[in-house]
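Inputs:
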Amino acid sequence: MKNAVVLLSGGLDSTTTLAIATDQGYRVHALTFQYGQRHEHEIEAAKTIAERYQVAQHHVFPIHLELFGGSALTANDIEVPKQRSDEEIGTGIPVTYVPARNTVFLSIALAMAETTPAHNIFIGVNALDYSGYPDCRPEFIKAFETTANLATKAGVEHQGPFRIHTPLIDLTKGEIIRRGLDLGVDYALTITCYAPSEEGHACGTCDACNLRLKGFSDNKIVDPAPYTT
Amino acid sequence: MKNAVVLLSGGLDSTTTLAIATDQGYRVHALTFQYGQRHEHEIEAAKTIAERYQVAQHHVFPIHLELFGGSALTANDIEVPKQRSDEEIGTGIPVTYVPARNTVFLSIALAMAETTPAHNIFIGVNALDYSGYPDCRPEFIKAFETTANLATKAGVEHQGPFRIHTPLIDLTKGEIIRRGLDLGVDYALTITCYAPSEEGHACGTCDACNLRLKGFSDNKIVDPAPYTT
């Protein structure tokens, strides 16, 4: 049984990715980052999901990217945008972009993979819905994979075994949800909202909520997660 | 005046690198990692050196790579090797290799660079004395630079401005020390030893001490740093 490190945020995409890795027969080692999010609800969601899937291990790894600021998701002085128009979504790089986030996340996943050992890393990036994020593009993933195989003892000794899997990269949100439902994902456990209530209920109006709700709507089903509105 | 992020461990190589960046006219933003080293002496050394060079800012960034284990430098169950023969040094990958370390360090430096903003990152890697470390090789550095320019908002919007500077990569330890002395580096402030005493004095016998002492010997001068032996 092959080992895989799966990045698990507690959101819809990473949970679907975990389900896909499990379905493909990988023994999952989950990795969740605690990186100065404004809320801890997604970490709790990640723990619940990791338990549900009986992963081999689950690391919650603190990484204080908020020390550098620069993003609405980690800095308190940049407001998370609400109710942007369809035109605005998908144009330019959003303020919710976290500088170098996926590079940092994948490099720490690589450190975990090398010590596990695992040669497969799964990340739920998506190039369609998040077209504004440079570190969600296939060319970035490919460059990181090349770097990983040059950077490591395992890469040198086993001649480039590391593979970064991005099973969602070309899918629409609707297709991701369809795939997850086919695999029995319980989306009530997942949290996607940028700015949930104190109880962890989604706002229903931020970019992330809008994309998620549209994905469920495209499948003609109701999102089972709790919303405040 | 251009900004640069300089990785500063408090050791001989990174301090020389800081001196070179300063000499080249960069405004230095220093970054020191607290990553489960066995001792904190090098962090104190880094703080002293950053103050001496009056850097624009100095981040001491906690990164808990010891959670994953896998190296004599971060795990307590792997012994730091002592008095290896000249033949042993430079053959194979040493147990002091920390999985994916420079990938993690550079990715966090990239996050700091993007928020500073700075487009130049200096790292004191050396491909000669540390030929066993895959992430000290020029091909790794080049691959990371490519990744950095694909990963980031600044990379996309300014068409690949990030540059990873490795001014020591082709130098012997003796040449590094010569360069530093020419720039007025006070090597008494630096600490290189893998296993210093409680007072922070170098052991004089580990791989790192041996390389350093040989470098001073090649310059026919005495290392001003304190040793226990």
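The longest helix of chain B spans residues 101-115. Flag for discussion at group meeting.
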